[in-house]
Amino acid sequence: MKKIYFDHSATTPVDEKVIEVMIHFLREGYGNASSFESDNMAILGAARELSVKGKHIITSQLEHHAVLHTCQQLEKEGFKITYIKPDQFGMIQPQDVAKAITNETILISIMHANNEVGTINPINEIGEIAQEKKVLFHTDAVQSFGKLPINLAKFPVDMLTMSGHKIYGPKGTGILYVRQGIKLKQVLFGGAHEKNRRPGTENIPGIIGLAKAVEICSKSAAEEDKIKALRDKFYQNIINKIPRVRLNGHPENRLAGLLNLTFEGIEGEALLLSLDLKGVAASSGSACTSGAVEPSHVLLSMGVKPEFAQSSIRFSLGRSNTMEDVEYTSEILVEIVERLRQMSPFG
Ligand SMILES: *Cc1c(COP(=O)(O)O)cnc(C)c1O
């Protein structure tokens, strides 16, 4: 039967060409874009809801800008923020969190795993401290979700953020998990979607894509072992052939794919450019700050010297990588590092 649609003011059918570019976008267009909504909603929403109880928030110096910039906004609104300094491996010590708690503390936000060095924080211990002191606890699990086992029945967090495009899903999608009974002040206005939590018609293709991406992650736990083996081989190749290389981040307690290295005497940006010319994409600092010349705030917070921070790059391995990638890249790195060190005045 022929269908007649007379409701174009409510919504319009998606044009075939639009569907085509979306499919193409999902397949080919996986460069970075950003949507800080989940971290924003969690932190702004909780802080503003609880501001009658107190105005103190605890976070860390090596959070993603999604969290740090949100906290800076709250400082402008009169909140006091304590930024915990990590140890030399980029790990937040639970006792430092415990010490920072005051009667005024309403929220703790500490990331699960760091996006630049991969270090995994002791979320269980920090969560227990938060529970004991009856302080709300949020974790940015964007990097760990789908990679580390997270069982929300046991994981002592009140709120958790993840992002679709970090787990092979579509950009602009994510999940903010909020434990039952927790109220957040509305952050964005102009609609009553998702039980009045946010405006904007839901991004259904995005949500479907996100659900599929989560489902795939839940079935591919073995991938992480494979990725870790590649990463470790890559690191061994590099330190066997290239002198004066330092590993940033925790030697064991870090994400399987992460390898953040300092090549002493070389500008990280120059190294990235040379790699790019050979078809290898890596990054310096976090993707969100590359282009800016300041050294990574994460490495500085760990006590890495500024000149070493400037000489650091991040390789993050994933499902698409193979042993050939590792062998090829370690070989060209040897040549590139040698050449750049010869050119450098302090090489
Ligand atoms: C990428 C990232 C974000 C931001 O997620 P987007 O969806 O890109 O906005 C937040 N936190 C961490 C740790 C990240 O790696």
What is the CATH architecture assignment of the largest domain?
3-Layer(aba) Sandwich
Tally of individual domains: 2
Structural class by SSE content: alpha/beta
Rg, nearest Å: 22 Å
The third-level CATH topology of the largest domain is Aspartate Aminotransferase, domain 2
Main CATH class of the largest domain:
Alpha Beta
The number of E-state strands comes to: 9
Distance between the termini: 75 Å
Describe this structure in words.
With 347 residues, this protein is α/β, with parallel strands linked by helices. It has two domains: 180 residues, Aspartate Aminotransferase, domain 2 (3-Layer(aba) Sandwich), CATH 3.40.640.10; 121 residues, Aspartate Aminotransferase, domain 1 (Alpha-Beta Complex), CATH 3.90.1150.10. It is 39% helix and 13% strand. Strands 2-1-3-4-5-6 form a six-stranded mixed beta sheet, sandwiched between helices. Strands 7-8-9 form a three-stranded antiparallel beta sheet. Strand 3, helix 5 and strand 4 form a beta-alpha-beta unit. Helix 2 packs parallel to helix 3, helix 4 runs parallel beside helix 5 and helix 8 runs parallel beside helix 12. It starts with 15 loop residues before the first helix and ends with a helix. The mean pLDDT is 89. The site of pyridoxal-5'-phosphate has 15 residues, from loops. Pyridoxal-5'-phosphate binds next to loops.
